[in-house]
Structure formats: C-alpha cells, structure tokens
Amino acid sequence: MRNMTVALDPALIVEDDVATQQRLARLLATAADSDTRIAVASSVAEAKAHIAGRTPAIALIDIGLPDGSGIDLIHWLRHRHPEAATVVISAWGNEEIVLAALQAGATGYLLKERDDVELQLALQSIQRGGAPIDPFVARRILTLLPAAQPAAAASDEGHALSERETEILRLVARGYSNREIAELTALSRFTIEGYTKAIYRKLAVGSRTAAVFEAKSRGLLR
Amino acid sequence: MLLALLALLAGCARQHPGASPTTRVQTLQHAEAAPSGWDATAPPVAGWVPVKLTDFWDKRWPRHNGVVWYRLHWNQADPNAPIGLLLDYVCLADEVWVNGSLLHRDPSLVEPLSRRWITPQYFVLDQPLLHAGENTLLVRVSGIAAYQPGLGVVRIGDPETVQAIYRKGMFWRFDIHLFNFAISAVLGVLFLMFWLLRRRETVFGWYALTTLLGAGYAWTFVTLSPWPFATTDGWESMNAALYVASTSTFCIFQLRFCEQRWQRTETALLLYSAASLLATLLAPHVMGPLRNVWALPMIVPNYAAIMLFLWYAIRTPRADLRVMAACMLVPALVSLADLLVYLQIASSSDYDIGAATTPLTLVGMGFAVAWRFSAAMRRVEGFNAELRHEVDVATTQLSETLSREHTLALSHTRIGERLNLVRDLHDGFGGSLLGAITSLEQSPPSPEATRTVATLKELRDDLRLVIDTTTREQDTDLAGLLAPLRHRWSQRLETAGIDSFWRFDGLDDCRLDAARSLDLLRFLQEALTNVLKHSGACRVDLLVRHAHEQLHAEVRDDGRGFDPANLASRGAGLASLHSRAARLGGRLAVQAAPGAGAALQLDCPAP
C-alpha cells in the first residue's frame, strides 16, 4: 500500500477561483505529462456531475466552494469512489481545515500560499504514493491519534500510531526535513512519504471510529 | 468562701467537748414521764415512769399518739443568780412549765402539730420563778409515735454558756438548713432559667429539678408549721416523697452528666417518684408512718449514681468532673454517717455535718454545670473565631481567584483580539497577496514582474511569520515555533540545491514573548533569504542555542561572501539585521570576507 503510486491523470480541479484553477492546472501539467486530462469544476454540483461521467484518478478540491464545502465533497468521494485520490487545497494554511479534510479522507493537501516549486514537489510526492506533511499537521495528529502499545506491533491494524510513525511525526513536528528524517531513521525519503500517507489513512479511520473528531471539524467549518 | 466556712464549722466541732464546763452547766438526763390524751391540761397524777434523756417514747408506748409529760427536778443553790435553760430536742410540739408557771407554748399542740423539733429552746430563768432548793421543770410534749416523739437532754446553768450552746445548736440544726434551702432554691431557679432558655441542655433541666426538689425537701428542717398539710402524716409523707423525687432526678442528672441514657432505669425512677407523690396525697396516713419502707430504699440508687459518677470522673480527665466528684464524695460519706444516725445504728451528734456539706454538693454540681455552660460558650466563641478565619481565607482565595480569572480573561481577550486581527490580515491582505503573486506569475515573464513577485513573496513570508508567532505563541515553545520555519526553509533551500544543517539546542521549554519571537524568526528568515538570493552557497549551517539565559543564533554559509565594510554589497540587508538584533537587546556579529563565506551571529539575553 505504501508504494502504491497515484496517477495524476485524469485529474479534476474543484476550485472557483480562476487564477488558482490555472495555476493548479499548470502545476499538474508540469508534474505529470503535458497531455494530462485535466477537468475543472467550480462548484460541488459541477464536480459531482463531472465525476458521474468519469471518475478522476486524483481530485484537487478547494474548501470554500460556492455551493458547499469541499470537505463534504471529499467525504462523499471517499465513500462513492474510494479509488480516487483526494487532495485538499487550502487557501492559507488553516490547520484545522487541513485536518478536517484529512479526517474526511483526503490523502494530501496543498497550501496555496506556497511557491510553485514547493507545490510541484508535493504533487510529485503524491504521485509517488506519498503525502506531504507540515510540522503543525504532524503535531495535531500526534494529539489526535493514540500511540500503539509496544506489544501490539501490528501497525497496519486499527488507527493507533506505530512506534515508527510516532517517531516520524515527532521529527516532522520539530521541523526536520525529509532528508534529515531519512538520515535519522535509516529509511528512504520515499518510504517516509509513504508513512505519512499511511498516517493520514489512520487519521481518517480514527475519525470514523471516533465521530467526535468529525463533528468537531464540521463545527469548525461553520 | 464556702470552704472557709466549712473549715470554721469543723473548728467549732472540735472545740465542742472542751466548751461544756460541767461546773457551770448541768445536763439533766433523768426524768419522769407519763402519757396522757391530746386534751390534757394538767399532768396525770399516776403512771409516771423514770426515763433517761434523750427519751423517744415510741419505744415504750409504741402506739401512743398524744401527749407525754416529762418532769425533771434540779437543785438551785443560789436563786438570785439567773440561769439559762436549754431544751435540746422536743418532738413535736411542747409546752414548758417551770415551778408551775407556763414558760412557753407552741402555736399548735394538736394536729396540725407545730414542728418544734427543728430548733432547740432556750429560756432565762430568774426570781421569782426560780426557787432556792428544788425546782421542777414540766414539759408537755405532743407527738406521734411514728415520728420519733420524745424529749432530748435538758441543760441548765450560766445563761451565757447555755445560750452559747443554744446558738451553736441553732446554727447546726437550723441556720445551715435554712442556708441550704436558700442556696438550693436560688440555684434551682437559676438553672431552671438556663434550661428554659436553652432546652437542648437537658443537664441544666435535671440539675434544676434535682435542686428544686431538694429545696422542697430541705424546707422540712426550717418550717415550724406543717402548712399546707393538715396533719403531720401529710407533711412527713410529702417530705419523704420529695426525697424520693429529688433522689431520682439526681440519679438521672448524674447519668446525663456522664452522657449516659439508661432509658428503663430512668423511667422506673420517674414512675416511682410520681407514684410516691400521688400516694402521699391520696393516703398520707398510710404513707407517712411507712415512709422508711418506701422512701429509704432510694438511698441505693442514690449511692449507685454517686459511685457511677465517681467511676466516670476517674476515667475521664475533665476538670469539671473531677471537681464535682470531689464535691460529691465528702457529702456522700457524711450522709452515710447521717443515715446511720437516722436509723439509730450510730449515736447522734450535736452537729449535723451532712447538712453542712450539702452546699458543697450543690456548689460542686453548680460548678460542673456552669463549667459545661462555659465550655459550650468557649466552643461557640472558638467556632466563631474559626468561622471568621475561614471566611477570611475563603474571601481572600475568592478575590485572588477572581483577580486571576480577570487577568486570565483579559489576556484571553487580548489574545483573541490579536487572533482576530491576524485572521483578518490572513484572509484579506494574505489572500490578495497570494492572488497578486499567482496572477503575476502567470503573466508573461518580465524582469519587473519577477522583482515584484520576489518582493511580494517576501511580504508573504513575513506575514506567515507574523501569523505563526501570533497563533502559536500560546501553545508551543521556541522549538515548536521554529519548526515551521525550519521545515519550509529546508525544503526551499533543498530545492535551490543548498544543503542546510540545522541545530537547535536547549530550545525545548524556552519561551519568548510574541514580539521577540517574531524578531528572532525574522532575523533567521532574512538571513536565509540573503543566503538563498545572494550567497551562491552550497551549504548553510544554522544554530539556535539557548543556554544560561542567553540566546545565540548563527547562520553560516560557504558562499561567495562579502565585505562587511562595503555597504553597497549587502549592507542594506545587514542594516535590517542589526536593527533586529538591537530590538532583541542583543548584538550582531558579522564575519564575512569576499570568497570565504559569511557568518551572522546574534547574541541576546533570553531569560
């Protein structure tokens, strides 16, 4: 699962701001091939209509859409089309919104405030089957998910964090780069990106089991 | 004072044997007695028998209720010297005749009989009553067989001496009892008031009842008339019933004082008392003569209660109990002696020590009850003080809590306001900034657009820092605050092909205020921007260390370096860094030389 790559084609951008639409399309095209099929929807309804016609391999979804919340769309996609990878686009890194999206089932997030180069790296990471992560997200996950008991080593079961995952999250939370983490844990950076993705899945599972988080995140979405 | 009085009394008692000079006072013990009816006005002619005084006629004539005449003779050497005559004891009422002349007559010589036995009688005899040679004393005694009727010894002699004996007798047999009666009545009424005002203190109530019943009982020693009773039977049986009742309440009082409650015993005692009083009123002529049968057994519970109390007092170290026990022990022993006299087991004495010690018991009990009262008062006062103290403490705590909460609320409000401000910046200004960057980047590239984008990105980065420091200030230490910067810049530097090596030392749990944090972050960000834009370095080392209340930040690159003296090269950026260092209250050291990299070192205090 960790090494499962994500295709960036066909892609769906759900975003109501034209400039951002174009920017994301350009980034996607750069990250994948230039002939990538990129569809654009500017509302939840439009997105659902599009998905009914063709399920995208990846959907980049903005939060504040004219007719609803991107979080709901992510949730909907996760249950209707679990094969589609969802990435949330956050305007200005509001960590609660990012976390709510991850709990709803997003496998990654892109912060609009970041430079193109950084977003490209993130997309590449997603493509490789990983997921980018920031210190604040790591910190929040550490408080949200329970740490696994050392005895129960089955890290892939349940939503408790494995020791390794906890270690990685701690390092991320302290600002260590993937390169540094790779050096410290003797893992490859790609493996570390894979860990991140697994952690996000646990966050989504944990949220399902503990509906309170979801309720919380919905509450935060006003 | 009471003890002094008792000591005095004891002193009098010791003096007594020597103070009866036989030469000057003659004790007449031989007499003749003859019974007659209630109405006899003259002594009978026949039927005289010799008797030895003190004489109780019930032994001789067990059923004789009425009059017994006693006749005594003495020889008077000198009729010109007046003499004193003392009748020690007459029971119940009497007439006194000397040489055929009436000297004294009690108010009532038939029922209800005067109760003359309570006092001795004293007369001064002089001519013409007094004859030279033989003189005759005739005492007509009205009495009832059931109540120890008879005549005590008669003394004649020097009037002053005899009067002194009379006064002593009056004191011991009358005054002390009057005193007892008065003290009992006063204490009883006093504690009755206490109890009435404070019903919960039942000990007070029982003490008052005991004392008042005791006063009623003591009245028998001081009243000459059996009023309100029509007969001596009525009086005596009521008196015995009062004894029963007062003993019962005394027992209950003792139990209550020992904090005991013997429900059945108490009920039995009270029922017996009530029955005694009732029977007394209904059948005085039966109850009176039989009083020893039904009243005397009360001495058993009486002494039992005293013993119980003594036991309790020994086991409980309390001053009030000890005092009361001592005040009770002496009278108890004395009353035992009195009892023996009453039962005619031991010989009578002139002095009723029991009566003298009764006040001791009363005062002892009064002391103990008063002690209880004052102990309760002390408790209340202590409680008040404690309460006041606790209220003070609570008030202080409350005001501290309130002021703390107020401070906290203020600080929360301030933080909230700051967060709102930052959010507005974030949503409005930040959004526009990002929009501008995006659209400029999408416009056809031009040097001017590139420059503008770079500037806008710097603004964006700075805004990021402002937001980070403001929103995270509360929940993270310096290490946590630096983490986003480190994360973002290591990625950015990596993208630019620069290896970055970060070292944070001692930053866990180190906290700076928002403004200082922001200055530090800005310092690092500007230094890194310089490295990224101008140095052409392959490697940058960052160190932030907190030790000994000093913060040390260092950014060192292996780039092309510059001449610090030459403002034109990187002087403008350096000026800004210097001002940041100054704002942090620290100092910036620049080590740089063209071609040899650059190192910026910031040292500032960080308590």
From TrEMBL, chain B:
The keyword Phosphoprotein does not apply. PROSITE patterns: HIS_KIN. SMART domains: HATPase_c (SM00387). Keywords: ATP-binding, Kinase, Membrane, Nucleotide-binding, Transferase, Transmembrane, Transmembrane helix, Two-component regulatory system. It holds the Pfam family HATPase_c. InterPro entries: Galactose-bd-like_sf (IPR008979), HATPase_C_sf (IPR036890), HATPase_dom (IPR003594), His_kinase_dom (IPR005467), Sensor_HK_TwoCompSys (IPR050482). Residues 520-607 form the Histidine kinase domain. GO terms for molecular function: ATP binding. It comes from the Bacteria. The chain crosses the membrane at residues 178-197, 204-228, 240-257, 269-287, 293-314, 321-345, 351-371. This is ATP-binding protein. The lineage of its organism: Bacteria, Pseudomonadati, Pseudomonadota, Gammaproteobacteria, Lysobacterales.
